[in-house]
Amino acid sequence: MGRKEFDKNMTAVAFAEAGEHDTAKNLLQGGKEKPMATQETAKKPYLKTLIFGTVSISAYILLFKNEKLVTDTFTMGGWRWIYPVCTAFFFSFIHGAFASNLLSSLGIEAKK
Amino acid sequence: MKKLLIILMFTILPLSLSAHAALAAGGEGPSKDMLKGIITEVNAVERTVLFEKDGTKEMLTLSLGATMQPEDLKVNQKVLINLDKHAEGKVMKDVSVMFMDMTPSKLIALLVIGAIGGLLSGFIGSGGAFVMTPAMMSLGVPGAVAVASNMCHKFPKAMVGAYKRWKYGQADIKLGLVMASTAIIGVQIGIKIQKYILSQFGGAGSNLYISAVFMVVLVFVGGYVFYDAYKLAKGKSEEGATSRLALRMQSINLPPMMHFKTAKIRISAWITIPVGLLTGMLAATIAVGGFIGVPGMIYVLGASAVVASATELIIAFVMGAWGSIQWGLSGLIDIRLALLLLATSLIGVQLGALGTTYVKDYIIKVVMATTMLIVAVSRGVKIPGYLVDLELMAPIAPNTIALLEAISFWSLVAALGSAGAIIIVAMIKGMTADRQSKKALGVANG
Fold first, then answer.
1. Nearest CA in chain A to B54
2. Residues of A numbered 34-63 whose beta carbons fall under 8 angstroms of chain B's beta carbons: which are they?
3. What is the ipTM of this complex?
4. For residue B23, is it within any domain?
């Protein structure tokens, strides 16, 4: 880090600490922010979101296309409780994984 | 200690599983006067129908009730029929089509309530059920199917939420399982009480009892949580301080003592069990056990709001799965409704779960109290109607009753809406502050 850049950073820190975030950002613009952004993008699970999303949507379409068959067999009662309960489990894994990856792709993550 | 826990689990669970009277949390199950199947033929002259009972090939001839019209009956569609208990022979009281037609507006309505219900659930550990069942009923779903489908959507949602919050280090699995196993017994007790009241005072008496419990619990507990959150927000009491009651409870050294690592509590099982029992009893009465479970874990056991609300999701999962099996056995789950609610609630619940990592502990209490107090209003306005039914009050004009019903429904919507808004605003504030501090830190580190 050159001396000029060091000075610039220290000025930005001073502004950031004083709550002047925009000024701090302006001071730092160029150079620093871009590589950070690409680093974040690389980590985002776009592919996983797409895969789980496709599987989930296909499962939804498949089920709703056969609506009558599904609702009739699932409500026969007795041991057939397995059908709705297992279906709910299946969707919670597939669709849950999709939802999780979707939120990460959108950059919404838990505080670390 | 582990041994004791295992013994507790293995004695309590099979006991409750074998109890035949056991039905899902969320009220009574399908009554014996309810038939499920298909009407194959309508005889308008004799006012009878030929009915094929579901699961068996048994054919029954049923008579139409006095107020029913033959042309209103749907042939070759699965229906739920309520029989008139007081009439001789098999007389139908009412018929409802089991599977409503899914129109785009109903679909959107389900997705929206799913999303907000999920958000609330992920954040405060419970919520959604109290509005989902009435909302589904107003979309034309028969009551029993609405309760069953809500139950089937609740356990996968709670499972995903519990997993997320466990990953954030907030959920205490041991506490959750102990509470859940005692809550299942509480459900049985709750149902027994409900059945007793129903047989003694009839439907209106039972409704009045439910509403009264609702009001007392929600106003008292919700009010206290709100007062506590207010003190915390004003800085009058210390964030994370254990309540005096909990400290006293923790000092009771009555074996077996239990140690909950995540919740950082060491407490006698004799204190934990009643809290679980009450949670289950309330779940059987008003369908939302979390309204007593979460405050119970905070103020009686001494867990933080974050840990209590996360642990509630484990309880909701166990009880929801157990309830779904019960309702599945009677074949009343409309899987389409459960899955449509899940489509958005699985996103909502994860958003709510990660939201808790950005907010202060008291925000969870604020959201919880707000929801409880508005829900109390929705139930309170229904009380006059029940009092009239019981002839304890002079009749009210039908217009007023309709107005009260509307207030009741819309206050539920308001409860959900305002809680959702508080969560989103608190979360965005927390995230922005976090990003800014990280940026400043990044700058400082060069």
1. A76
2. 36, 60, 63
3. 0.78
4. no
Tokens coding B196: 């007793």
Minimal C-alpha gap between B99 and chain A (Å): 8
C-beta atoms of B439 and A25 within 8 A: yes
Exposed / middle / buried, residue B409 (Cβ in 10 Å: 0-12, 13-18, 19+): middle
Contact B35, B53 (CB under 8 A): yes
Residues B163, B164, B170, B176, CA torsion sign: negative
Asked whether residue B186 falls in the same domain as residue B311, the answer is yes
Task: Give pLDDT tens digits for B120-170.
Answer: 888 988 877 777 877 787 788 887 888 888 889 989 999 999 999 999 999
Taking the CA of residue A72 and the nearest CA in chain B, the distance in Å comes to: 8
B139 and B248 assigned to the same domain: yes
Residues 6+ apart with CB under 8 A from B358: A111, B426, B427, B429, B430, B431, B434
Query: Are B371 and B415 a contacting pair, CB within 8 Å?
Result: yes
Residues B46 and B150 in one domain: no
Residues B50, B199, single domain; the answer is no
Range of the domain at B49: 34-97
The secondary structure of chain B, three-state, reads CHHHHHHHHHHHHHHHHHCCCCCCCCCCCCCCCEEEEEEEEEECCCCEEEEEECCCCCEEEEECCCCCCHHHCCCCCEEEEEECCCCCCCEEEEEEECCCCCCHHHHHHHHHHHHHHHHHHHHHCCCCHHHHHHHHHHCCCCHHHHHHHHHHHHHHHHHHHHHHHHHCCCCCHHHHHHHHHHHHHHHHHHHHHHHHHHHHHHHHHHHHHHHHHHHHHHHHHHHHHHHHHHHHHCCCCCCCCCCHHHHHHHCCCCCCEEEECCCCEEEEHHHHHHHHHHHHHHHHHHCCCHHHHHHHHHHHHCCCHHHHHHHHHHHHHHHHHHHHHHHHHCCCCCHHHHHHHHHHHHHHHHHHHHHCCCCCHHHHHHHHHHHHHHHHHHHHCCHHHHHHHCCCCCCCCHHHHHHHHHHHHHHHHHHHHHHHHHHHHHHHHHHHHHHHHHHHHHHHCC
Give the global pTM: 0.79
Low-confidence residues in chain B, pLDDT < 70 = 1-32, 237-240, 287, 446
Measure CB to CB from residue B338 to each of A13, A17, A88 and give the nearest one: A88
The verdict on residue B274 lying in a domain is yes
User: Hey, is the C-beta of A23 within 8 angstroms of any chain B C-beta?
Assistant: no
* pLDDT for the residue A49: 93
- Whether B321 and B358 map to the same domain: the answer is yes
Q: How do residues A7-60 score in pLDDT, each as one tens digit?
A: 777 777 777 777 667 667 766 765 444 444 444 445 788 999 999 999 999 999
**In chain B, how many domains are there?**
2
Contacting B residues, span 43-82, partner chain A, CB-CB under 8 Å: 54-55, 78
Is residue B284 within 8 angstroms of chain A, CB to CB?
A: no
Q: Per the domain annotation, does B227 fall within a domain?
A: yes
**Number of CB pairs, chain A paired with chain B, less than 8 A apart:** 140
